[in-house]
Amino acid sequence: MALKTLAPAMMKKVLFLASLMLAASAHAQNVVGNAAEGAKLVATCQGCHNMGGGYRSSFPEIFAVPMINGQNAQYIVDALKEYKNGNRRFPTMRAIAASLTDQQMADIAAYYATAKGQPIK
Ligand code: HEC
């Protein structure tokens, strides 16, 4: 009799704990970007990504810099992660991305996704 009444209760507890753990790990992967926080992090990026009409840095003879204003947020996060893990090899971007946390990447992506297509002077 004890078994019959205990088992469902234990099952519920186990399921509840399992759902908590799932929720926690889902949360860790779905970092939500905050554009206002991102705006504080992009000072270094602007010098390269926002000059000379957006597609060139201040050193057009050295870099052709992709326009990232208005770029899809997920694309930006993916690109930064690829620089960080070495799948993309541009050295400067790799060094920069390596210093960013997932949260900072999401914040920066949220900022650039809503940024206007015009270069900032
Ligand atoms: C020294 C100049 C420089 C700085 C500073 C810089 N970038 Fe870049 N970034 C580049 C160049 C050049 C590329 C293209 C590299 C390549 O060919 O892979 C690039 C590529 C990227 C890409 C991929 C764009 C695409 O269309 O595939 C993203 C996203 C990006 N940078 C974000 C950032 C962010 C965010 C910062 C600031 C935290 C930053 N960059 C700082 C020069 C720079």
TrEMBL record:
UniProt keyword Cell membrane present: no
Ranges for domain Cytochrome c: 33-116
Keywords: Electron transport, Heme, Iron, Metal-binding, Signal, Transport
Isomerase keyword on record: no
Signal peptide start and end residues: 1-28
Xref: InterPro entries: Cyt_c-like_dom, Cyt_c-like_dom_sf, Cytochrome_c_Oxidase_Subunit
Record-level Gene Ontology MF annotations: electron transfer activity; heme binding; metal ion binding
Annotated PANTHER family: CBB3-TYPE CYTOCHROME C OXIDASE SUBUNIT FIXP (PTHR33751), CYTOCHROME C4 (PTHR33751:SF9)
Record's protein name: Cytochrome c
Top-level taxonomy: Bacteria, Pseudomonadati, Pseudomonadota, Betaproteobacteria, Burkholderiales
